[in-house]
Amino acid sequence: MYNIGIIDKINLKGLEILKKNNKFTYELITDLSKKNLLKKLPEFDGITLRRGKVDSEVLKNCKKLKVISRHGVGYDNVDINFLKKNDIKLLVTDASTSTSPAEHIMFMILSIYKGINMFDDIVRKGEFAKAIHLDINENFELYKKDILIVGFGRIGRKLIKKCLGFDLKVSVFDPYVDDKTIRSFGGIKVSNFNDAIKKTDILSLSVPKNDETYNLITKTEMKLMKKNSIIINASRGGIINEEDLNNALNDKTIFFAGIDVFEHEPPNENNPLLANKRVLLSPHAATFTKECLENMSIETVTNLIDFFEKKIDKSKIVKL
Ligand SMILES: NC(=O)c1ccc[n+]([C@@H]2O[C@H](COP(=O)([O-])OP(=O)(O)OC[C@H]3O[C@@H](n4cnc5c(N)ncnc54)[C@H](O)[C@@H]3O)[C@@H](O)[C@H]2O)c1
User: Fold this and answer.
1) Which end of the chain is more exposed for a tag (fewer CB within 10 A), N or C?
2) Residue 243 class from Cβ within 10 Å (0-12 exposed, 13-18 middle, 19+ buried)?
């Protein structure tokens, strides 16, 4: 019998699978404080992990722990060096976690380009008739605009199809994906990041957060970008420097941003982006659709069961 910790609530569909399997017992942990994780985690042979920081201090007492099954793709909340040294396996979701995020990026681009918040506001305020007199200079067509997709993994590859459907011209920056693969999806591989950001109208980030991508976009990069450009970050907070972004939006270095993720989540009350009307915000919600959350929960639990039943697909195990 394996004892499983469900770290942070997940959709019931996954838990039902676990409930039906008599080789497993589980406990749902919703108190994600370090104190509680230190106390509870040593009890488990495996855990699923949504939110919650699992650092080396938490892990060092987990003598039974063999596997962490992430509810998602990113694993910046886990100490991977500790896992590597102690041969604890890390699993990630795959198919379930890319459709909704790619749609969310497209939704942000469209909402910004079409000025949707402004229109919604106008109608609700009873100013419908005034709309015809508006000087429309900040709503745009996507047709033939340039988008640069940074990171061409699961999400980047779903996003490109949607972009091509809107007749966007797509460039891709991903040093780890070859030209042939990018071309087969209808994109153009670019190798010089600074040149590419100078030319693009839309910059969309779909990269993991690590030493290489932390503060990938700062005031230096934004100064190179076009004045009408927009940036969408639905990958991880910290990949764009938030203070620099706020300043760049205020002084019109760039036009607009769509931000789903923050360096500190939830963001501090005094985070200037919360008051900036030049940014469209969502609460780390790119996966928040019925289908995505159900499928992620099922995939996270199935990965964990497959691991213990020794039939896990190797592509689900992160190479640490
Ligand atoms: N906002 C959300 O709710 C949400 C949902 C899902 C995923 N994400 C995040 O989105 C990111 C992308 O997810 P994914 O499933 O596409 O990941 P993925 O691992 O499939 O793809 C990431 C891609 O980034 C590339 N890459 C790595 N370093 C790079 C660099 N320095 N420059 C350019 N490219 C680089 C990799 O080669 C890879 O192709 C992850 O960080 C994940 O945490 C966020």
Assistant:
1) N
2) middle
Q: Give the C-alpha separation, 215 to 240, whole Å.
A: 5
28/51 same-domain check = yes
For residues 246-276, b (16+ Cβ closer than 10 Å) or e, as one string?
A: bebbeeebbbbbbbbbbbeeebeeebbbeeb
Ligand 1, atom 37: nearest CA belongs to which residue? Answer: 176
Do both 187 and 242 map to the same domain? yes
- Do 236 and 267 have their domain in common? yes
pLDDT single digits (tens) 138-163 = 999 999 999 999 999 999 999 999 99
9 and 31 co-located in one domain: yes
- Domain shared by 133 and 86, yes or no: no
Ligand 1, pocket-test mutation among 49, 73, 209, 215, most atoms within 8 A of CB: 73
Q: Domain of 87?
A: 2-96+290-316
Residues 78 and 180 in one domain: no
- Nearest alpha carbon, ligand 1 atom 20: 153
pLDDT mean across residues, the chain: 97
Ligand 1 contacts (CB < 6 A) are 72-74, 97-98, 101, 150-156, 173-177, 206-209, 212-213, 234-236, 260-261, 284, 286-287
Where do the DSSP E strands lie in 110-255? 146-150, 169-173, 188-189, 202-205, 230-233
Please identify every residue annotated as catalytic. 236, 265, 284
Question: Do 134 and 31 reside in the same domain of the chain?
Answer: no
Q: How far is CA 307 from the centre of its chain?
A: 25
Q: Tell me the two tokens of residue 98.
A: 């890319």
Confidence of residue 252 (pLDDT cuts 50, 70, 90): very high
The answer to whether 72 and 296 have CB atoms below 8 angstroms apart is yes
Distance (Å, rounded) from C-alpha 221 to C-alpha 197? Answer: 8
pTM greater than 0.90: yes
Q: How far is CA 238 from CA 207, 208, 247, 264, in A?
A: 11, 11, 15, 8
